[in-house]
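Quick question, first post here. What does this chain look like in 3D?
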Amino acid sequence: MDITLNGTFLNFNGTDFFIKGLSNAPELQYLGFLIFLFTYLVIIFGNISIFLVICLNSHLHSPMYIFLMNLSVIDILYTSSILPKLLSVLITKNDTISFWGCIYQMYFFLAMACAEVLLLAAMAYDRYVAICHPLHYVTIMSVRQAAGLTITAWSIGFLDPSGHAVLISRLSFCASRLIDHFFCDVIPLLKISCSDTSGVELINYLEGSLILSSAFVLTLVSYIFIISTIVKIKSAEGRRKAFSTCSSHLTCVVIFYGTIICLYMRPTTTYTPKQDKFIALLYAILVPVLNPVIYSLKNQEIKTGFIKFKNKLA
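> Answer (accepted):
Ran it through. Tokens below.
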């Protein structure tokens, strides 16, 4: 329901939003549809393949692969929260999304992003134990402990953005209700609100700082000890093998953490739509594409699992 207040239209729960997307040029929209469709299929196929290979190979039921399996599920879910709607907007030109559809999309995307941040931190700790305490790895990082860390990541992921969703759902939105983004995200929604958003921004900053800083510190400390241990290895081949076990994870951590910090750990006054859309593409689409490649295709055990899986299907 809309009402007018001093010439400004205010939105109450139930009114549609409009998603601006990435470009208004028709030729770019069709090209974008093909690119994002291909990317989405790669994400789904790649991550489902990893999940199945790990599930069907009992020798891969170790902490590292439990984390990797859950990372694949998270990547599928959080890209599925935005890409199907984006593809629909590009091909049908129907850019509307319901009020609650927008809130649910924002919540689910934030939940998966939060869970991934925490899971990446758990994976950093796993690599620290494997490299710095290899003889005690089985006792320190058991399957039970890995499952506990995974459940914690999922639980906090679903709990953390609930406050954002509730507070933003109570805001009023004015004028065109046009979201200058390719999905419903926190900052673009706050930008079109007619309400005082300082409270939501404060909670967004405090909660984001707490989770990101905790995960970042754990990851940073883990890698300080990892690098210190690798440097002490006498043989060049030993150092190379040790570093290869964590280089892929480090690459994803830098991209994922860097883009999230650039987007969310700042006030809405610094919001620049074009730049932020590009950054969002990196962590929302590029990282899920890279994860199957850098975590699995370089891993000999995963390669062997793929071959066995292929032979079973044949």
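The mean pLDDT is 81.
The two ends are 57 Å apart (CA to CA).
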